[in-house]
Amino acid sequence: MKEFTPRPVVQATGQLYDNPEKQEEKVKLWIDGREVEAVKGTNILEAARQVGIEIPSLCYLRNINEIGACRVCLVEVENKGAWTLQAACVYPVSEGLKVRANSPRVRQARRTMVELLLSDHHRECTTCIRNLNCELQNMADNLGIRNLRFTGEIKMRPVQNKNPFIVRDYNKCIKCRRCEAICSKVQEVNVYSALHRGFDTVIAPAFGKDLAEVACITCGQCVIACPTASLAEKECIDAVWEALEDPGKTVLVQTAPSIQVTLGEVFGFPVGTVVTGKLVASLRRLGFDKVFPTDFTADLTIMEEAHELLERLDGYGRLPLLSSCSPGWIKFCEHFYPEFLENLSTCKSPHEMFGALSKTYFAQKEGLDPAKITVVAIMPCTAKKYEASRPEMGTGCFKDVDWVLTTRELARMIRQAGINFADLPDADYDTPMGIASGAGAIFGSTGGVVEAAVRTAYYLTTGRELPLLDYEEFHGFSGLKEAWVDLKGRRIKVAIAHGTGNARRLLGRLKEGEQFDYAEIMACPGGCVGGGGQPIFGTREHKEISLDYRHNRADALHRIDCGRELRRAHENPAVKKIYAEFLGRPLSETARELLHTSFTPRSSGVEAYNFDICSTGRLL
Asked: Which of 77, 494, 499, 617 could serve as 196's disulfide partner, Cβ 3.0–4.6 Å?
């Protein structure tokens, strides 16, 4: 068994590229009397954090949103003999600078700023989805705010929840503009902008439309970035409880590969802890009839997509083949690059494949009525909720997947049931769809799909296994990765992109005529380990898109891969069995009917205009 060596953590820019190492000029300054050395041009906030001085902030995201909007990070800076208040997140350090980060004046200014934010905030903390996990709530507690001095008009705007994936509550928005920055600078979708002026300002899609009515790709990165509950996933916990309590239903649950390395974070485990056994045990305690890993159908996806790649290399279909397991990326392509829809693999994503097989193969094998089977998917992203609602994702008169829960929703269910997650004994997945290879596990990290598919495609074309060490170039968190692979008697060029901002760069190169044969694109930075449904913490460490914690999660998935006896999808005996008993072969008529899908070109802008809303304000 190959020993797994963790990759070194790298810093990243807003576009999520690795920074080259370089010598930079450093300066000395004093913060609260302590001498600090920092790179010239670094802001005061970052310089302070280097020496353990915490300056609070609500709007700041390193390299992404450095606008000084919330004014909570105010500090005193000596300027021509006078101490003036400055926003630490936008004030650059310089030689000999003197800063007071904890003076009475600073503390009072911060309290005043947070009180002003709270004065126009719907303070429903006890019933809020982010209760005890809200940055604004934590900030108010840390600053010792017990009473509000400011009262007056509070806006009452309707909550937007028309779509199946994200709820938008403008009454809890603090105008930090993090959602706008993530959407425009990282994902480069540009859904959000500031509407109206002054007290009436909102950060919203054009003309105040619901996210379902604009070119939102449903990735949920705005939810991860939001410091309050102004953005949250569309919760469906009650519907799942109802299904579990129905004696006439057989409720199956599947868990995405990344869930086993992220769920533990909610219950106090270090980032990157593998909690597979406790995850399975908790789902059984909740009452699910069968618990399966989506890793199994990730192996099926690999089989189908590897054969599709080889078919296209033989001239049957357009190259490059673009992966299709990320629904956020699919919607991005449908909106902004419909000319590449023919390049997309027709494979459904693994969780939809699982749903289709649950209501056909599993139902037949177990003698169950498909109408009485409910499939629940535990997924790392809000886009999976959208994907499950697509009309293409069904078999006959049945939806493939009935309900999608994010990692956060599952954690809430576990707490609602009074389960002590940390003390659970480890349990194993059920059969027959509970066996998975290491290749299925690495689907949850950027580069995993390409690596898994190439492992199998190489075997299919040569009859030999390429040593797994040869795939190391697929690892890492640079925004774009490229590699050459010997396949089918030729060298093919593959590309890996994560975050749709990087997808734009890759697709731009393709439009300019650069040749690739196969490309994996994931909508979320880091892949599924950085999905919009993953745990959110009310601390700045998990808000900064530095990718550090995503490295830990990805490394955990690679440890799972290295620890499994089966490392390649085509070695999986359960996959071989389902082809022998039911599907026939990859890309068979049955496989195409159940495991493949189609895509739809969509508008890249606002699809309808509400002139009543438009006439009451203006787009800034």
From this structure: 617
